[in-house]
Amino acid sequence: xxxxxxxxxxxxxxxxxxxxxxxxxxxxxxxxxxxxxxxxxxxxxxxxxxxxxxxxxxxxxxxxxxxxxxxxxxxxxxxxxxxxxxxxxxxxxxxxxxxxxxxxxxxxxxxxxxxxxxxxxxxxx
Length: 125
What we know:
single chain, 125 residues, alpha+beta, Trna Endonuclease, Chain: A, domain 1, five-stranded mixed β-sheet
């Protein structure tokens, strides 16, 4: 999926739906909150429990990408607000999925560094 000349809101929306499609392909049930003000973007039902997912996207064309995970006001997402992050990296054509530790504001992502274990790893959910 390549995104050209779109505003950030459109890019984020596409990433959210792309994540939902990928999760459903793997047998998860996906729900979206009705309010845009929710700290999470979707809920995944993995058959055992529900997980709150915050979805981010990065469109830079690099092998190693720095993704900002914090809220707009530079505050981290608490573990109570969000269970997992899913970051879509356009250049890598996939998601990096990792658990929220309540402290993370940014992360470097790449297929050839230690974060490669998170790439399209829906089993973390």
